[in-house]
Specification:
The complex is a heterodimer of chains A (212) and B (252).
Chain A lengths: L1 E5 L6 H12 L7 E5 L2 H4 L4 E4 L5 H10 L3 H11 L3 E5 L1 H4 L4 E2 L5 E2 L6 E5 L10 E9 L12 E7 L1 E5 L5 E6 L3 E8 L2 E4 L7 H13 L4
Parallel strand pairs in A: 1-2, 1-3, 3-4, 4-13, 5-7
Antiparallel strand pairs in A: 5-6, 7-10, 8-9, 8-11, 11-12, 12-13
Chain B lengths: L4 E9 L2 E6 L2 E5 L3 H11 L4 E5 L8 H13 L4 E4 L5 H10 L3 E4 L1 H5 L2 H10 L4 E11 L2 E6 L4 E6 H10 L4 E6 L11 H8 L6 E4 L5 H9 L5 E4 L1 H4 L5 H10 L7
Parallel strand pairs in B: 1-4, 1-12, 4-5, 5-6, 6-7, 7-10, 10-11, 11-12
Antiparallel strand pairs in B: 1-2, 2-3, 7-8, 8-9
Helix pairs in contact in B: 1-2, 8-10
The chains are: A alpha/beta (212), B alpha/beta (252).
């Protein structure tokens, strides 16, 4: 089984890669983990991870700059329904559009839009640090307790159009989407690769996940 | 609720851990990777490396330290010291740093802040500010590891870098650094109440009560300390337990 981590120059690529490797090494049947941006490699993937930090538009442009990258992603994730996990901006890109630095179109794989966090004046933006997550039960959140802290760092968040696509939230102090799910497509606003043991558990869950 | 972060900082010289008292008299005390692993397992919310290696010839050792740390510690790692160019930032991120802190180079070339934030995202860019009291509610910043004075006002500078896209301010009081008499909470609250981005308190923490004051009086989002953890006076857990007892939200 091949797990492909998409390399389009994202700043957290290395951290994501190392965290997945550390978890993968403990699996009974470890994946072959490949970090690549080559469409032919992506088309062979059984699971896909899309990291992302920085501005929405920059990430989107970086993906589209690589010939055939987006098309191969779409083929594997939408066409073949392979398990997908987006992290931070890699998750936000799933939205129809983002309002960060003007309007920018996303992949449109999960209905909704990425908007600025609205919080009272004494709340610092970016929302940075460890915050509690509550969630609907799902195998992707196996062995995680309600109100577990995960590491967040973002100023915008994904407001899903449908409640059913938001499977986890945090509060700052208003509810913020912490994870999204639609069929084979999963995404976290927080950084599992930086959330210590609970983050590793999320990665384990994703590696063991077989979306129906 | 968002937790107040406890961040142990390791000063690293040629790949070894040191801690200065008032930025001089460095004492060698350990392997940074081993230290980082201990802090990671003790419940540190983030880690910070400050590279104080003087010669650029010896800087390769830092990349190895960052790489090994990132392979072992799955919490955010900030690395600073000697970061001058976009290429420096890129190399640190490539070796596994999650955030990069910029000090002197941002003062000398303010455009670097906006460029770095645009390229890697605000959340990746920490601006480190060394400030020294200059009168009533007034502080000036120093560069070059606290050796070179400037006539730049610390508050105005922090507002400017926040507007340019810095994700966080690491605010060190030069008056307090190494003294163990507590953070400069007046400096912290003056800056923190004037900008939207988080402020990390640094310099002067000597006991558990100082951490509490940094949050309640200083308004800090995160608290950084070096020698208090490093020489085993208090553990991360001691600090978090104490903060929790004072009803300050921490990740236990």
């Amino acid at each position: 089984m091949k797990l492909v981590i998409i390399n389009y120059g994202s700043g957290n690529l290395h951290s994501v890669h190392k965290a997945f490797e550390a978890v993968n090494n403990n699996l009974e049947n470890p994946y072959e983990i490949i970090v690549t941006n080559t469409p032919s490699e992506i088309l062979k993937a059984d699971k896909i991870v899309l990291p992302g930090v920085g501005a929405f538009q920059d990430c989107k442009n970086a993906i589209h700059k690589i010939d055939g990258l987006f098309e191969s992603l779409k083929q594997v994730v939408i066409g073949e329904k392979k398990a997908f996990m987006g992290i931070c901006v890699g998750m936000q890109l799933l939205a129809e559009k983002s309002l960060e630095f003007g309007e920018c179109e996303g992949f449109g794989w999960i209905p909704g839009e990425v908007i600025k966090i609205e919080a009272p004046a004494d709340y610092k933006i970016p929302h940075m640090g460890w915050n509690e997550v509550t969630f609907r039960n799902h195998e992707l959140l196996n062995n995680i307790s309600q109100n577990t802290d995960f590491y967040f760092v973002h100023s915008y968040y994904f407001r899903t159009q449908k409640n059913e696509n938001c499977i986890a939230t945090t509060k700052y102090p208003n509810p913020i989407t912490a994870a999204v799910l639609k069929e084979n497509i999963f995404g976290t606003q927080f950084h599992p690769e930086k959330s210590h043991n609970n983050g590793k558990q999320i990665i384990t869950n994703f590696l063991e996940w077989e979306p129906s | 609720m968002l937790k107040k972060r406890i961040i142990p900082c390791l000063d690293v010289d040629r790949g070894r851990v040191v801690k200065g008292v008032n930025f001089v008299d460095l004492i060698d005390a350990g392997d940074p990777v081993e230290q980082a692993k201990i802090y990671n397992s003790e419940g540190a919310d983030e880690l910070c490396f400050l590279d104080i290696t003087a010669s650029s010839d010896d800087r390769e050792t830092l990349f190895e330290v960052v790489k090994k740390t990132a392979e072992n510690c799955f919490i955010p790692l900030t690395v600073g010291g000697g970061v001058r160019t976009i290429d420096d930032i890129s190399r640190l991120l490539h070796h596994g740093a999650d955030k990069v802190s910029i000090n002197t180079a941002a003062v000398e070339n303010i455009d670097l802040v906006a460029k770095a934030a645009k390229k890697y995202g605000s959340s990746t860019i920490v601006i480190a500010v060394d400030a020294k009291k200059n009168g009533d509610k007034s502080w000036n910043i120093f560069t070059h590891g606290g050796r070179k004075p400037t006539d730049i006002d610390a508050l105005e500078y922090c507002i400017e870098v926040a507007n340019l896209g810095a994700g966080e301010i690491l605010l060190t009081s030069m008056d307090r650094d190494g003294t163990k008499i507590g953070f400069d909470n007046e400096l912290l609250s003056t800056v923190s109440s004037s900008i939207d981005i988080p402020v990390i308190a640094s310099g002067g923490v000597g006991n558990l009560e100082h951490f509490v004051e940094g949050v309640l009086k200083g308004g800090a989002s995160a608290l950084l300390a070096a020698s208090i953890f490093h020489f085993g006076e208090y553990s991360i857990k001691d600090v978090k337990t104490y903060l929790a007892e004072q009803n300050i939200a921490v990740r236990i």
